[in-house]
Amino acid sequence: MGKKWSIITVVMLLTAFISSSAFAATSELQLTDCIKCHAKVVQDVETKGGLHMSAVSCLDCHVEHPPRGKNAIPQCSQCHEPTAKAHYQVADCITCHYPHHPLDMDITKTGMEVKPICLSCHQNEGQEMSSYPSKHAELSCAECHPKHATFQECLACHEPHTSEMTYQDCLRCHKPHMPTVVKYDQNIPSSFCSGCHGNEFDLLAKNRTKHHELSCVYCHKEQHKMVPKCMICHGEPHGPGMHKKFPNCLSCHVDAHDLSK
Fold first, then answer.
1. Alpha-carbon distance 70 to 72, whole Å?
2. Which of 45, 63, 91, 228 has the fewest CB atoms within 10 Å of its CB?
3. Alpha-carbon distance 37 to 65, whole Å?
4. Would you kindly state where each structural domain of the chain is located, as residue ranges?
């Protein structure tokens, strides 16, 4: 009898061991398991996870899960090596980035001055603002970019030069991070200039010389405040003696916008 029970006990122990081993072999977490408890997280990653959706999976970041492991939440530096980019050296990544939608950032809710953080990634824009100081450079980035990859249109803060101007028209002359460097192509309507140079625009409109037929940018080419020399178009029409005595054409003609004077 005792021998029989010993055999039964051994068989039961072996069965339990084999069963537990089989369970252990099949109980490793699979990607399909995550949605069972974390449906909202999976949805966030799939809709706005960016590279956190396409370049890595849940199990690449969360290599452990309680109760088997205590390090369920990884450090960002696990993938974003601080020596790789200046931006990766910024402390407390979670202030701006939520891992499951890392680029969906409301910058206004950080409660801190974000410009140094923004410029650690957007270095070209920082260089433009430091090289060409303006009132824009004095603002927090969040003033114009309340959310990452979004922007306020110029007309949200600025009156247009003329009523018909649109945001895209503003960009034809101004770059937002260096707005005082005004450059343009040869198709800018003269009416755009009239918003700031109304007197010159009105004089030219009344002028019936050939200058009346020209656009503002025909003479003031490519960059604001570029003032051409008359001789570029006219040469020296009065003869050497006259030009030697009056080297400045405006001594007689007074105003290129109103040659009737």
1. 6
2. 91
3. 12
4. 47-104, 106-181, 190-253
Structure confidence at residue 71 (pLDDT): 86
- Model pLDDT, residue 116: 95
Question: How far apart are the C-alpha atoms of 27 and 75, rounded to whole Å?
Answer: 26
Q: Looking at the DSSP assignment, which residues form a beta bridge with residue 175?
A: 178
Query: Average of pLDDT values for 76-83?
Result: 95
Measured CA to CA, the distance from residue 140 to residue 123 in angstroms comes to 15
- pLDDT for 24: 46
What number of helices (H) and strands (E) belong to the chain? Answer: 15, 0
pLDDT at position 129: 97
Please answer whether residues 31 and 37 qualify as being in contact, where contact means their C-beta atoms are separated by less than 8 angstroms: no
Distance of CA 23 to the CA centre of its chain: 51
pLDDT tens digits along 154-204: 999 999 999 999 999 999 999 999 999 999 999 999 999 999 999 999 999
Dist CA 35 CA 22 (whole Å)? 24
Which of 147 and 259 is assigned the larger pLDDT? 147
Q: How far apart are alpha carbons 217 and 31 in whole angstroms?
A: 62
Residue with tokens 């309507």: 189
Cα distance between residue 178 and residue 133, in whole Å: 7
82 in Cβ contact with 89 (< 8 Å): yes
Tokens found for residue 45? 């990653």
> For a pLDDT cut of 90, what percent of the chain falls above it?
80
